[in-house]
């Protein structure tokens, strides 16, 4: 059996199982939210720690990977913001939700299980998770809480700086960021762990992939079956950035900076993942462009799974 089939069948099998359970009303949207919380708060921090702890980190590749991703992220965020303001008529706060949905991929539920299944992909992928978990979340949170005075009044600069600082602090407190950073420290310092502790970490880490993929399918089916697809104009304008322009530019820059095929392949995978369900959660928390974000996520999940399968079909055999 080919490596591609061996990779895709478990991944898409878990996704379709989740979607089928929602179609049969075995689980609903509330169940998806509860399981998502378990994956985000418990399982994935363990997975991030364990994968990073056991993966060697190449400093030179790390720098090139980070530089390529951040430059591409700046371009994609700017493009999404301008489109949201000029063509969708959104406020700065609403445009923040649009930017987040166009730059944050489903790295947690979908990306990590894929990266963990391909030799050499886990370490660079988790490095990008750190960047996304801090920078992208900080940008999205800052824009969605942007001061309404828009630069007028004596206290506006102070309010802007306070907003940015609060967004950065919130991003750094993410359980997945903390878990992955802890794993990076353990890997660099060669931290010895007793066998029972190591076994517990590995056991918990193994729950993240299957449950995360099941929740992804459950959440996607719930969006479609509950008629929560939302506005489609935003999806038509933003998904080309998320699924095509962002990964293409990131891969080009990472290859330019590193000439490393593995780092380039991982960068394209990471930035080309379907939009994260967390986009809907964040937009709902801040009450910004919820219908538009749901359209980007629901349509983007379906299209993104197709483009992801095509990408893996092209890359894995090579």
Automatic annotation (TrEMBL):
<feature type="transmembrane region" description="Helical">
    <location>
        <begin position="122"/>
        <end position="146"/>
    </location>
</feature>
<feature type="transmembrane region" description="Helical">
    <location>
        <begin position="61"/>
        <end position="83"/>
    </location>
</feature>
<keyword id="KW-1133">Transmembrane helix</keyword>
<keyword id="KW-0813">Transport</keyword>
<feature type="transmembrane region" description="Helical">
    <location>
        <begin position="167"/>
        <end position="188"/>
    </location>
</feature>
<dbReference type="Pfam" id="PF03547">
    <property type="entry name" value="Mem_trans"/>
</dbReference>
<keyword id="KW-0472">Membrane</keyword>
<feature type="transmembrane region" description="Helical">
    <location>
        <begin position="200"/>
        <end position="225"/>
    </location>
</feature>
<feature type="transmembrane region" description="Helical">
    <location>
        <begin position="263"/>
        <end position="282"/>
    </location>
</feature>
<protein>
    <submittedName>
        <fullName>AEC family transporter</fullName>
    </submittedName>
</protein>
<feature type="transmembrane region" description="Helical">
    <location>
        <begin position="289"/>
        <end position="316"/>
    </location>
</feature>
<keyword id="KW-1003">Cell membrane</keyword>
<feature type="transmembrane region" description="Helical">
    <location>
        <begin position="95"/>
        <end position="116"/>
    </location>
</feature>
<dbReference type="InterPro" id="IPR004776">
    <property type="entry name" value="Mem_transp_PIN-like"/>
</dbReference>
<keyword id="KW-0812">Transmembrane</keyword>
<feature type="transmembrane region" description="Helical">
    <location>
        <begin position="237"/>
        <end position="257"/>
    </location>
</feature>
């Amino acid at each position: 059996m080919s490596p591609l089939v061996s990779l895709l069948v478990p991944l898409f099998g878990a996704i379709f199982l989740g979607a089928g359970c929602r179609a049969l009303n075995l689980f609903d949207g509330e169940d998806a939210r509860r399981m998502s919380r378990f994956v985000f708060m418990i399982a994935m921090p363990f997975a991030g720690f364990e994968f990073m702890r056991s993966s060697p980190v190449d400093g030179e590749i790390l720098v090139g990977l980070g530089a390529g991703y951040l430059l591409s992220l700046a371009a994609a965020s700017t493009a999404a913001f301008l489109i949201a303001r000029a063509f969708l008529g959104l406020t700065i706060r609403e445009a923040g939700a649009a930017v987040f949905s166009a730059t944050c991929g489903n790295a947690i539920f979908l990306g990590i299980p894929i990266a963990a299944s391909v030799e050499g992909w886990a370490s660079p992928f988790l490095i990008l998770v750190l960047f996304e978990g801090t920078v992208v979340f900080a940008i999205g949170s800052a824009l969605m809480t942007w001061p309404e005075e828009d630069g007028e009044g004596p206290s506006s600069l102070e309010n802007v700086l306070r907003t940015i600082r609060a967004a950065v602090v919130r991003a750094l407190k993410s359980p997945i960021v903390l878990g992955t950073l802890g794993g990076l420290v353990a890997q660099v310092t060669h931290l010895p762990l007793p066998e029972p502790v190591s076994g517990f970490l590995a056991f918990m880490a193994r729950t993240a992939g299957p449950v995360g993929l099941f929740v992804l399918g459950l959440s996607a089916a719930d969006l479609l079956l509950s008629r929560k697809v939302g506005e489609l104009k935003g999806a038509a304008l933003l998904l080309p950035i998320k699924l095509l322009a962002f990964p293409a530019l990131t891969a080009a820059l990472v290859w330019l900076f590193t000439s490393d095929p593995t780092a380039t392949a991982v960068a394209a995978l990471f930035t080309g993942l379907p939009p994260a369900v967390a986009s809907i959660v964040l937009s709902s928390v801040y009450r910004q462009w919820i219908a538009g974000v749901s359209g980007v996520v629901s349509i983007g999940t379906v299209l993104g799974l197709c483009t992801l399968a095509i990408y893996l079909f092209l890359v894995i055999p090579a």
